[in-house]
Amino acid sequence: MASFASALVAALVLGLVNAVIRPILILLTLPATILTLGLFIFVINGLLFWFVGSFIQGFVVAGFWWGVLGAIVYSIFSWALAALVFPTRAAPGGRPT
Questions:
Q1: pTM as predicted
Q2: Which terminus in the chain has less CB density within 10 A, N or C?
Q3: C-alpha distances in angstroms, 92 versus 13, 83, 86, 89, 95?
Q4: Using one digit for the tens of pLDDT, what is the confidence trace for 12-53?
């Protein structure tokens, strides 16, 4: 990352790409995703991460596999942050609602 501003721009563009392009790609590659039991989504996420890194100055993704690794780290971080911000509440019987 060259600066905090480029990190914010990369996060914004990655969010837009994940909101618009990712569902279309998942729908188009549904047979491959089903065949690989969902593992092909890692490939899609890596390609999108690499794609964003290719045109945002200051956000560098060195290659496809670094894109896949970055997408995995990004997913884990997003999941952990969502778990902290939106914890599931337990019902009186101990079961989540």
A1: 0.75
A2: C
A3: 42, 20, 19, 10, 7
A4: 998 899 899 999 999 999 999 999 999 899 899 999 989 998
51 burial (CB, 10 Å; 0-12 / 13-18 / 19+) is middle
Q: Strand, coil or helix: what is 16?
A: helix
Q: Name the band, by pLDDT with cuts 50, 70 and 90, for residue 78.
A: confident
> Which residue has 């060259």 as its token pair?
2
